[in-house]
Specification:
single chain, 77% helix, mainly alpha, 7 helices
Length: 213
């Protein structure tokens, strides 16, 4: 009787082999993971509509608002992911990484592409509005440098971060997710975000120079 009590576990708790062993036993029905959070779509639409209005008005303040706010959020999130979330995630167990990914990764599907679009579009129109795109502008070289840095970051964000994000989400939709693969993909996502965040420091230096000139 003593052995039966000591070996009993709460329903759904992982066994000695971890979460994978628990899932490999009796299948537990779970709600299907939502890859695109539908509740966030109206916010994305509102942000993009506001950007279109700012482009149509072509006034300095709304263009600066979208470019500065979008760029600031993009930079801050990348730095937070790479230098705070990344080390914490690396010390978490695989089941904990899976649970974190289920709640965190769907939000990034909408957030990061929206910030990239707002920042780049607002920045281009802002540079055009103040005349920095003209080759005769004293800030033209700084603008070209910012285009190079931001272009690389956009390629990384949309070509590496977003596919890694989607790969994690599709893996989580499987009846028995591969925790080790999820952890590997999450590390790639977060550390790559940290690299782009570090690159954004160069962008901040360029932008502050332009604002001061």
């Amino acid at each position: 009787m003593t052995e039966v009590i000591s070996s009993a576990r709460p329903a759904g708790a992982p066994g000695p082999g971890g979460e994978g062993a628990a899932m490999g036993g009796q299948a537990v029905a779970a709600p299907l993971l939502q890859i695109v959070p539908l509740a966030g779509i109206p916010l994305v639409v509102a942000a993009l509509v506001g950007l279109v209005v700012a482009l149509a008005v072509n006034d300095l303040w709304p263009l600066e608002f979208f470019h500065v706010v979008g760029g600031g959020l993009w930079t801050g999130i990348d730095l937070f992911l790479g230098f705070i979330i990344g080390p914490v995630l690396g010390r978490m167990s695989i089941p904990a990484r899976v649970e974190f990914s289920k709640r965190f990764m769907p939000k990034m599907v909408l957030l990061m592409p929206t910030l990239v679009i707002i920042t780049l579009t607002g920045g281009w129109q802002l540079a055009r509005h103040v005349g920095n795109l003209a080759s005769s502008s004293p800030n033209h070289a700084w603008i070209i440098a910012s285009f190079v840095v931001v272009g690389v970051m956009a390629i990384v964000a949309l070509g590496i971060l977003e596919p890694a994000n989607l790969a994690v989400l599709f893996e989580l939709r499987k009846p028995v997710p591969n925790g080790a693969l999820i952890g590997k993909l999450m590390k790639r996502f977060i550390y790559t975000a940290g690299v782009t965040g570090a690159m954004q420091v160069a962008t901040l230096m360029i932008m502050t120079h332009l604002a001061a000139s």
